[in-house]
Specification:
- This protein has about 110 residues and is α+β, with helices and mostly antiparallel strands.
- The chain is built from 3 helices and 3 strands; from the N terminus they run ααβαββ.
- Helix 1 runs antiparallel to helix 2.
- GO terms for molecular function: 1,4-alpha-oligoglucan phosphorylase activity; pentosyltransferase activity.
- InterPro entries: PYNP-like_C_sf, PYNP_C, Thymidine/pyrmidine_PPase.
């Protein structure tokens, strides 16, 4: 069970229970919705590639990683892909949070 694994790693029973069976956002750090940046695509088409290294580097530069051991990690940082390779997207309605990191075959 995931909850037992968390507890074995030193997570309190209450926190582990909230993560597994409750509201994860009560215990996990997160950014309020009004501080989330959504990148819009300017073209419609089919997503043909997502550059994982660019996604990772973007997260790192935003604070999800560190270049020295004494630097803090911002656990609120992340990228949520709203579409995946092979999916069609319409510029009018589809939002892609990693706009320039996604290649689109136009049609």
């Amino acid at each position: 069970c995931f909850q037992v694994m968390l507890e074995c790693q030193g997570v309190s029973k209450e926190t582990a229970q909230e993560l597994c069976h409750g509201d994860i956002w009560k215990v996990l750090p997160h950014v309020p919705g009004n501080q989330v940046t959504k990148l819009l695509s300017h073209r419609k088409g089919i997503i043909t590639d997502i550059d994982a290294m660019s996604v990772a580097m973007s997260c790192w530069k935003l604070g999800a990683g560190r270049s020295r051991a004494d630097q803090d990690i911002d656990h609120r940082v992340g990228i949520r892909l709203l579409k995946t390779v092979g999916e069609e997207k319409d510029k009018a309605i589809s939002k892609v949070r990693v706009g320039e990191l996604v290649k689109v075959r136009e049609y």
